[in-house]
Amino acid sequence: MSQVDNLIPDHIKSSLSEAEVDSDGEINMDRVPFAKNTIRMDLKQIDKSLKAMSAQQNKENKRNMMESDENQNRTCTPVNETEHPGQPLTPTANLKVLFNAMSPELRNRDEQKAQYSDEDNNVSLSQDYEFETIIEVPITAEAENKFGPSRKEKSLGLLCQRFLTMYPEYPEKGEKIEICLDEVASELQVERRRIYDIVNVLESVEIVSRVAKNRYAWHGKRNLGTTLAKLKALGDSERFGEQIQKLKDFEFNRELEEQFGRSDPRLKANGVDADFSIFGESSLFNQALRKDKSLGIMSQKFLMLFLVSKPKTVNLDLSAKLLIGDANIDRTENAKFKTKIRRLYDIANILTSLNLIKKVHVTEIRGRKPAFKYIGPDIDVPGTDVQLTCCSDGCHRPSTRHSILDCIQNNRVAKIIDAYKESTPRSSSSSEGEGDDKVRFSRHSSFETLCAVASVETNKLNSSAPNSPVKGDKASDNKGALSDSEAKLPTRGFVRRRPGLKVDDLSSVEKTADAIIIKTRPQPVKPAMKQPTIIPLTKEQIDAVLRSLKVPVPVKKNQLTDATTQSSPPVDDQMVMNEGYEGVTEVKEEQQVEMKELNEKTPVVMSNTPERIGPKRPAPTGDSIPLEKRVKLTFASPSSLGDDKSPVPMNPEAVLRCKKTADVVKPSPQRALHLTPEFSNPKVSLVPGGDASNMETEERSQGKKIEIVISESGSKLVSPVRRSVQEVVQLSNAQTILIQSPISTSATKSPTVVHLGSQPTTILQLPVQQGQQQRLGQMATTTITLPQGMQLLQNGQHLMQLPISLNSSVPNSPRVITYTFSSPQSSHPTSFTNAQLLSNQNSNKGVGNLSTLIRPVASKATASPQAGSYNAAPSLGNQSPIYLRNSSGGFVPISSVAVNVPKVIVASSNHSHGDLSSSVLITGDTS
DNA sequence: CTCTCCCGCCATTCA
DNA sequence: TGAATGGCGGGAGAG
After folding, report:
1. Distance, angstroms, CA A349 to C1' B5?
2. Minimum-distance nucleotide, CA of A213 to C1'
3. For A190 and B12, how far is CA from C1' in angstroms?
4. Model confidence over A544-581: pLDDT tens digits?
5. Residue A282 — left, alpha, or beta (φ > 0 → left; ψ -120 to 50 → alpha)?
6. Which positions carry the signal peptide feature in this UniProt record (predicted)?
7. Residue A200 and residue A185: Cα distance in Å, rounded?
8. What architecture does CATH give domain A161-218?
């Protein structure tokens, strides 16, 4: 140490804090970062470097001061810092030189000392920001790293934070704040290049918007909620959630193979191992153009991934793959991947500083992985300050190279706008925004078009009235064929209606061009039962958002029912309307029936009343119906039938409601059909803290929700004629039944009755295909997922308890697991072993969410011949099979059982996902 | 070693 | 045409 000590000039020594100088005057090099490795150099060299640096720094400071005065309002080109080779001009460059000369810490201290000795304290902050920071940092072990412009201190996130502190988070209405990039760069003492990075991301969330060269308008976070909502709507419309889920399945399966040597056949059968070119098909994820690689657009896509994911956690690898559009990209070799990761780090750091995301660690099969979790405003809950306007400040802003929300340069948006213009002659009356706050920033040459678009959007918002021409046209077209206007719509989907769809027990029916809403009796929404799954936007808002983006949305006849149709994950289906939204208040109270159209490409009506649908629905001829459809229905429970508070008259018809997003020309990317969405569905709605009695009450008082998913298999491995139905029946806030039954359209005639809880009678009727699946080569399975404790009929007489004993080690050793359950009425315990980790994609926040599915593998399959291709069956031994009873009095034997174990895959640092809820998956023969 | 991500070259876009 | 932007990847700090 003494040797090193001798190399340190006295003036540097004196600048060291006491913390680094021992009582005997000897420098404690252990507390001087980098000193050990860098301080061995000639004193003359050090002094020379210091002098050069000091002189240069002073020169730089003077220049900056002059420029600062000069550039108050001018747009200027940054000084070319490379004009002086060998003579770095910027502090950063100086420091780089210094780093080679001596410890940066020592150098900084020397600088600080010189700075503060030569100048008074009136030096502008911009001149000595770093120094000031350094001076005031207490010298602690943690703070040591902050001495000097360490790498962390120069991080983009920190820089962004400093940027944000320069302007009000929520500026007053009408307050116009302009940003000069030069000033900011000067203020923050960074290169312009870094400012561009920050501004681009801020622009992507509409915190700023560009108004002219070198000038931006500051909006703060006033538009943040709206922007996020738009991103979510766009992501939903593009069904990115499904894609993400598919990719997660794919990744999970691959890891499964790597770790355990086998993948899940069902996932494979559902196409999870299909190539992921679909990620590149979407224009939103098309990286072909330079502008599509913009940091801002990338930021929006990145945010979108969070907004549509369940849970809102994604890792960079997954994001990069999605953004690149190649799931098989080599993450270690591929330069493209590395670059993408770099950019995502940049974005993530900025978004982190915006408190939109935070870094977490996710434990997966292969271990702990870093990831980011969305922590921004929850746009899934009511109360979100989402305005009807494109932007909350009334400024129709999204017109930039760096926004996928750009409705000017986005062709699809433009086409939609044109279509609306053609079909809707209207005078542009603007009601958006606050009249006194319509600040429009004109940067784009197509500003006029921008205004036109804004007007169109406004009209669209206003056109929610029943007499909208567009609506009328669309609504009148209910013959199953595409109307001209529909065909013109540049949408990804198209409407395929089923005329005359009827559903029993409907309290109201809504028919629109692309949607059918089936309403049943209203059921009172108990405050305590408010679901965590709330869609914050009204239908009008969603429509407006979708229209402003690129997704044609149905024009509703009755807006009272529209708020329920936002495409969103099943979790969010519990729609509790926000009272703050006028015109939808009634809906709020009676969200009895929800038809959720999850697949925008295939708006096909599905009903659980086969006898009515069947005749009007042509028998499936395989490829005759290239549609995927999901319809979610909620049926009022008998006890609630008398409480009809619905203002909507009963109407025994169903309304097809589906977004017309299918691309008529381009075949829709095939979608995997799997249980994932349902399993992950927080719609299970386990209310934390809710007790059993409450659930029981709810079970009786509330209606059941049935989600029917009819989809053409997205897998290349299965027959194209295969069709499946998934039904999720929410029996209460705590119980969900999921039945997956490949059916033909005429096969939904034999509902299965599931006996639940204390309900003595029928609770659920599920269409079960009979005798069709084998002929059609379909997977003959009926899958029911029951939460822990749910009871099933056994032999049509007994309720069978299915207690699941979970071992905490299960998640870590999924290969060999034995589960045993028994019926209280039966002395025959049933067990199965050799369960297989099936899926990890369903980790959701909240109690009862499922992330990992364990199901038995085929080794002990005892499936009956009717079990078809399904290869999983429990070892039921010699005991009597467990049956599900169908409505016709027959019984459907259960052929397999699986268990949903607690979510273990995703574990944030606070372990908020470590619930031990579980459920049972029962597979039965459908014949 | 991998993970992060700063840095600035230089291509592209803009005015 | 020069200035304004910003894509990109080398390479180094951090862990």
Report:
1. 9
2. C4
3. 23
4. 545 544 444 333 323 222 222 222 222 222 222 222 22
5. beta
6. none
7. 14
8. Orthogonal Bundle (1.10)
